Amino acid sequence: MTDTSTATTASVPLAPQRLPLLGHALPLLRDPLAFIMSLSGYRTMVRVRLGPSSAVMICDPDLTRQVFLNDRVFDKGGPIYDRIREVIGDGLSTCSYTLHRRQRRLCQPSFHPARLPGYGAVFAQAAELKARSWRDGDVLDITQEMMTLTTRATMQTMFSGALPEETMRRALADTATIVSAFFRRMMTPALLRQVPTPQKRRYDRARKRLSDTIAQIIAERRADPTDHADLLSALVGAVDEESEDGRKQLSDGELADEALTFFLGGMETTAITLAWALHLLATDPDVQHRLQVETDNVLKGEKLDPAHLPSLGLAGRVVTETLRLYPPAWMMTRTVRQDAELGGVRLKAGSTLVLSPYLLHRRPDLYTEPDRFDPDRWLDAQPDRATYIPFGAGPRKCIGDQFALTEAILALTAIVARWELTPVGDKPFRPKVETSLSSRGLSLRLGERWAGGAESHGAHAEAPAPARPSTEPGVATCPVKHQER
Ligand code: HEM
């Protein structure tokens, strides 16, 4: 990369509210989203300090895209990935550029489009089971409910067949412990992270137990390598024909890292996307009603199936809009591997860059009324690949994007078919900002629907749904599907 610029990082403005020694750690810990949005006036870059170290936050969509696309220079790294690496080692999402291409080639077949209908059938069944488990009038911890749903669905698509209930329960509890500890550990200086507090001990225990569970499943699969048509079989059987060092397959250690990566990477992000989508529907009865009409018209009393996906246009737009408002990966970091230039500024090797989908998705110059939930903004518009980045972009773009969208749209449909959702209390619910933009603590009330859902699921059937005309145009499932890297 030719460096023709003269400006250095020192010329990038420093964000306000900095304290001596702590830098911006306090506002970032106290209210990270308010802090991030307070930076939206900076159109290109702004510097943020965390104690002695500093990071450059990229505020411009085109510069963000340049960073995503050039993963050789702007490599995975920085505090988020350093903490995640503690748990999942050098899996696909955390490994550096030098390891990445081989791992991506080996993991990609697991997400081949031909496998999606099979995974979709598992998602649809798991979602219907979950929706059937609730009772009229229930007040649910909806994030917890969605976590158990996606954990079960992810476990089944990864490891096929039913895992023992105790294994499932333990994996869920350990995942929750690990996920909630990530963000605090990311913000805590290295020395303090080693202090054996009860929290740290809990975190270490959960990490070890989850790794042991996965290692045990892998050992059993190695002993019986027949194709189980699941993610693990695809990983075990993957062959890298382009390998330059003779390592054509994943070793046991690599396999464990990848399995843990898919499990942790896929299950929480999809669960909170679903929880936010249900929250947004509960607070917008009009959209919720339209979605029920779509669901009734598409299912017509049939069992939910991945073949319904192309007709679930509004459900797709609800998910797209949810990911705009609450992108689970609300910020990402990169390490600059060699001196480089970005937007006319010279960046030194070793600098940390911060990218934020949350910031871009809520910029008023990029989205009309950016804080408003409006799935119809996607009716005639494809998401723009520079300004809509819930799955990142470029060579490190989420490998599970279609997997997650399929799961989210099917689960949303199964739930809305059967239940009317209403908020609990009248206080606005605010995200818990962790490594993900979490909906932890969100409650919703359920009322059983009088029609379509009950009819299609049998158990609570009362009256068949009267035919209501669809108000939805028959657009494809989800605009994100057509987005390129
Ligand atoms: C709504 C759900 C999801 C969201 C919002 C999401 C978001 C993201 C984002 C933003 C990245 C890029 C991170 C970066 O560039 O720093 C990413 C990467 C990744 N995601 Fe997802 N993800 C979701 C679901 C999934 C699922 C279901 C899986 C697997 C089953 C998965 C596995 C991965 C992996 C392995 C990577 C690393 C890819 C690479 O570096 O080549 N994700 N995800």
TrEMBL record:
Pfam families according to UniProt: p450
Metal-binding as UniProt keyword: yes
Annotated keywords: Heme, Iron, Metal-binding, Monooxygenase, Oxidoreductase
InterPro entries: Cyt_P450 (IPR001128), Cyt_P450_CS (IPR017972), Cyt_P450_E_grp-I (IPR002401), Cyt_P450_sf (IPR036396), Cytochrome_P450_Monoox (IPR050196)
Region (Disordered): 451-485
CDD domains, A to Z: CYP170A1-like
Biased composition, class Low complexity, residue ranges: 451-470
Superkingdom classification of source: Bacteria
Protein family: Belongs to the cytochrome P450 family.
Protein name: Cytochrome P450
Lineage: Bacteria, Bacillati, Actinomycetota, Actinomycetes, Kitasatosporales
